[in-house]
Amino acid sequence: MSGIKNPVGAVAILSLATIVTLIVCPMIGIKWILPSNIANDSDLRFVFLTMRLPRTLVAFFAGGGLAVAGMIYQALFRNPLADPYTLGVSSGASLGAALCIVLGAGGSAFGLSIVTLGAFAGAVGSILIIYTFAWSKESNSSTLLLAGVIVATLCSGLIMFLNFIGGLNQSFQILRWIMGGVDGASYSLFFIMVVPLAAFFAIAGILMPQLDQFLTGDNIAHSRGINIRASRNLFIVITALAVGAIVAICGPIGFIGILAPHAGRMMIPGVRHRLLSLCSFLLGGSFLVLADTLARSVVPPSEIPVGIITAMLGGPFFLLVLFRSKNRLLM
Amino acid sequence: MNTPTPMIQVHDVRAVYGPHEVLQGVSLAVERNQRWAIIGRNGAGKSTLIKLIAGLLHPNKGALQVNGMEARRYSARKRAQIMAYVPQKPDGVIPYSVHDFVMLGRYSAMGLMGMPSHKDREAVREAIDICDIHHLADRLMSTLSGGELQRVLLAGAVAQQTPLLLLDEPTTSLDPAHERLFFEALGRLHEQRELTIVMVTHDINTALVQCTHIGALLNGHFIFAGSAGEFKKQCPAVLEEIFKVRFERYVWSEGKSEAFGAWGVSCPE
């Protein structure tokens, strides 16, 4: 395929699909809640407004944020396998959460549970390690990826150790946290997550032309006027902070961050990053909303952790697309 | 009136790459509007020199000025307004259309938001004209042949509208037909604007036709740096000194044209 498809049409279709998803999905659950119910039934209205709606919003922005973060790391490292967790942010967050669970730290502060705060602290810790390394003389795309893998592996080892010394109940809590989910979402959690995300989208949106240059290779990008190291490190830190905010609240939900950007590239080959980030955001957001809707409706009254759904839906779908695509991976 | 500063002033530059010193005190002055070819054996330091000028590497010792200012003092954006660099080939697949890629060359001229102005579109149109790649404009870069890709890379640099163009073995992997198209594009460019070119090349005969000056590197030193005419007079001896193989001079059209050919035979001692 050598031609460029119509990007405006693709974005229009995506936007429409997103709007439909955002309207229909909150209605679906153990019990359907239709607009007439919201008007007449105060119990269902309560469920809709205080549970379904914030949950849908959290899922949408978390999914969208992960997709944009994945797109940025894929471009920055010119690696189709990169995802939001590549630099070990989610492992750091998981370690922080696991530590709080094992230490039995209960309660809450600033409207957030201690486990969530611990997760965010863990994420920030891993970002600091990577960021310090990123300014060292030896850092380049490959060594940074390697450093991320090492941080992630180290954290996984420590989480396993915590699992080992923790009680059965604590181990289960850790495992459940790592599966990720948006259940228990509230408006306050939504706002706490969406403020750093909004800052991330604004800054990243402005910087997108620099990201375009990264995919031409370091030498050409440098010649075009990009300060490679400064630009790369800025992208790393704003993206990592956004991912940290999402993971602290939703846990490390997998697959969206790697899948949505590739789906966007396959829809509109050759697209530049500002538009691709919009497509990725809409795709990732809608996908997580759909996955969460499934998670709470498949085996009522229990809920499946949404991370399981994203992997089970996303994996086969992505393999199918990959096998059938003439473009393979477009980067 | 002062005489204009040279475009590039290299003074006693040393550059260490890994365990050995690739450039061992190199000096060179490139005046405006000159076209230089840097020749030499593999590993002689040609690419290192051009990367030093491009600001991709920094000298360990010595001074290197471009357009009257120390090369390493340029901000990334300012540098991109003075010089454009064309690599031998890109680091990987570039996932954009040809038109979009050429537009990326306008980065340093655009504002923070990277929105192309009328002037940017004009510059892209002109670059596409000069490099004769109209028919490729809507293609994805990943679908281009090597010869097409090289002219597209050139177009990206042309769109930068810099007074200095750096080419690192731009035609090494091209067949003679595509090499001709590449140099025709370069010729059109040179006709349209004042331009200083420094290129690294292995093709001595092309260099003698296309360039006004030759710099010949051997073991980290220039053993010749001067006009192409003077270089021809010293050939094939200087070529044999560099490459340690026999070179022959071929002359035709009643002495108006000449070329040098190597036969892969060692020089007589």
Overview of the molecule:
The complex is a heterodimer of chains A (331) and B (269). Chain A has 331 residues and is mostly helical. Chain A has helices at residues 7-24, 35-40, 42-76, 89-102, 114-134, 141-165, 168-179, 187-214, 218-223, 228-250, 256-267, 273-297, 306-324, and strands at residues 108-109, 112-113. Chain A is globular and about 65 Å long. Chain B is an alpha/beta fold. Helix content of chain B is 33%, strand content 30%. Chain B is built from 9 helices and 12 strands. In chain B, the strands form 3 sheets. Chain B has a 6-stranded mixed β-sheet, sandwiched between helices. In chain B, strands 2-1-4-5 form a 4-stranded antiparallel β-sheet, with helices on one face. A two-stranded antiparallel sheet of chain B has the order 11-12. In chain B, helix 6 links the parallel strand 7 (164-168) and strand 8. Chain B is globular. The relative contact order of chain B is 0.16. The mean pLDDT of chain B is 90. At the A-B interface, helix 8 and helix 9 of A face helix 2, strand 6, helix 3 and helix 5 of B.
Topology (elements, then pairings):
The complex is a heterodimer of chains A (331) and B (269).
Chain A: H1 7-24, H2 35-40, H3 42-76, H4 89-102, E1 108-109, E2 112-113, H5 114-134, H6 141-165, H7 168-179, H8 187-214, H9 218-223, H10 228-250, H11 256-267, H12 273-297, H13 306-324
Antiparallel strand pairs in A: 1-2
Helix pairs in contact in A: 1-12, 3-8, 3-10, 3-11, 3-12, 4-5, 4-6, 4-7, 4-10, 5-6, 5-10, 6-7, 8-10, 11-12, 12-13
Chain B: E1 8-17, E2 20-30, E3 35-40, H1 46-54, E4 61-66, E5 69-70, H2 76-82, E6 83-86, H3 98-104, H4 118-130, H5 146-159, E7 164-168, H6 176-192, E8 196-200, H7 204-210, E9 213-218, E10 221-227, H8 228-234, H9 237-243, E11 245-252, E12 257-266
Parallel strand pairs in B: 3-8, 3-9, 6-7, 7-8
Antiparallel strand pairs in B: 1-2, 1-4, 4-5, 9-10, 11-12
Helix pairs in contact in B: 3-5, 4-5, 5-6
